[in-house]
Amino acid sequence: MDINQKIGERIRELRKQKNISQEALANIAEVDRTYMTGVETGKRNVTVKVLERIVEALELDFASFFNDKIFMK
Amino acid sequence: MDINQKIGERIRELRKQKNISQEALANIAEVDRTYMTGVETGKRNVTVKVLERIVEALELDFASFFNDKIFMK
DNA sequence: TGATACAACGGGTTATGAGTCACATGGATG
DNA sequence: CATCCATGTGACTCATAACCCGTTGTATCA
Q1: Which CATH number covers residue A36?
Q2: How far, in Å, is the CA of A39 from the C1' of nucleotide D16?
Q3: How many domains would you assign to chain A?
């Protein structure tokens, strides 16, 4: 599976845990709602700076975000 | 500290552990030698796909790469 | 001194990410 | 049914990531 899809799935999983909409998360991360859709569906190849905003919007740090089976070999 | 600087420092640290040059690492990751310098010095805002190539060149997965104090709140 | 290896910088081109819009779909609800 | 609400898509512009060149500076050698 593509790394962007993995990241999208991870974001969606964490967002659902917080019970918020794509739009709500997008607003906190200061990205467009439709852009967030693209990220979650793995269609966007995000830069580290944008990913940082999303991870922070999820109230996590990079270590926790990537500490998941999906990111392990 | 900026996220790109953190990533650059982390890459440099891991590269030195492996005792290889920027150019050697760049070749494995299939990026340009001068581009790798930019990444290590925190001047580049890399995309996830390129970061994946570098992390793989360091023989790590994302979970291990980000499992470091520097990426924790 | 000259040669070699490594790292950093400046500058230019090309590819693509970031940001935005209108519109479509599907589910729930009155 | 009509109207929200959440999500997804295609197309577009503009900024910048990705890529490549030559050069410079430094250290370490023979």
Answers
A1: 1.10.260.40
A2: 19
A3: 1
